[in-house]
């Protein structure tokens, strides 16, 4: 499974591509950050994020895109930019028919470190260890993008089985009792 992880942001949008399957060593195929100038017009910033993500999609051809689920932050301005960049990532994937998975920050931290309250440094250290890298990816947005991809690879099989079970239950429930 090849996953493009996106840590959305307007100033720095982390991007990371990881390949592998749950229970096996994973491989980092690429990591980086799409940057936009804070003083640029919002529409131009969103366009730059879109172009950056499209380049990563062209180059790495992921099977899935994992995006950090935007959650309420104290700074409304920050959460708005994050949500807009997140929407751009989802749009780019949808345009190509690539499934998108949203993962919460605590879900990603728990998957990678074992604790949903892990600090950024802990996440970076575990990403470095899990992908057998020489040093943690910088900035933290890049490491977070890789963590999103890792989280998806590890959790997707279980989520898929759960969705299939729910679908089977729904089919049986609509058929009613057999006579």
Based on DSSP secondary structure assignment, what is the total number of beta strands? 5
Basic shape = globular
**Which spans have pLDDT < 50 for at least 5 consecutive residues?**
none
Largest sheet: 5 strands, mixed
Give helix % range: 40-55%
CATH superfamily: Ribonuclease H-like superfamily/Ribonuclease H
The computed structural class is: alpha/beta
How would you describe this protein?
- It catalyses: Endonucleolytic cleavage at a junction such as a reciprocal single-stranded crossover between two homologous DNA duplexes (Holliday junction).
- Belongs to the RuvC family.
- This is Crossover junction endodeoxyribonuclease RuvC.
- The structure is a single chain.
- The chain is α/β, with parallel strands linked by helices.
- It has one domain: Nucleotidyltransferase, domain 5, CATH 3.30.420.10.
- The protein is 53% helix and 18% strand.
- The protein has five helices and five strands.
- The chain has helices at residues 42-60, 76-95, 105-113, 120-130, 140-175; strands at residues 2-7, 12-19, 27-35, 64-68, 100-103.
- Strands 3-2-1-4-5 form a five-stranded mixed β-sheet, sandwiched between helices.
- Helix 2 (76-95) links the parallel strand 4 and strand 5 (100-103).
- The longest helix has 36 residues, at 140-175.
- It is globular, with a radius of gyration of 17 Å.
- The mean pLDDT is 92.
């Amino acid at each position: 499974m090849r996953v493009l992880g996106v840590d959305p942001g307007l100033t720095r949008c982390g991007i990371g591509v990881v390949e592998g399957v749950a229970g096996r060593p994973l491989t980092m195929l690429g990591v980086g950050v799409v940057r936009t100038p804070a003083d640029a017009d919002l529409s131009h910033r969103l366009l730059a994020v879109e172009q950056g993500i499209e380049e990563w999609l062209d180059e790495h051809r992921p099977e899935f895109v994992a995006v950090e689920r935007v959650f309420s932050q104290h700074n409304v301005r920050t959460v708005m930019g994050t949500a807009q960049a997140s929407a751009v990532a989802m749009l780019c994937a949808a345009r190509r028919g690539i499934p998108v998975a949203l993962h919460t920050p605590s879900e990603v931290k728990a998957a990678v470190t074992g604790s949903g309250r892990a600090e950024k440094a802990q996440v970076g250290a575990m990403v470095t260890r899990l992908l057998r890298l020489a040093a943690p990816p910088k900035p933290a947005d890049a490491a977070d993008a890789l963590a999103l991809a890792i989280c998806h690879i590890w959790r997707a099989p279980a989520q898929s089985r759960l969705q299939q079970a729910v679908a089977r239950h729904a089919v049986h429930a609509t058929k009613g009792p057999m006579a």
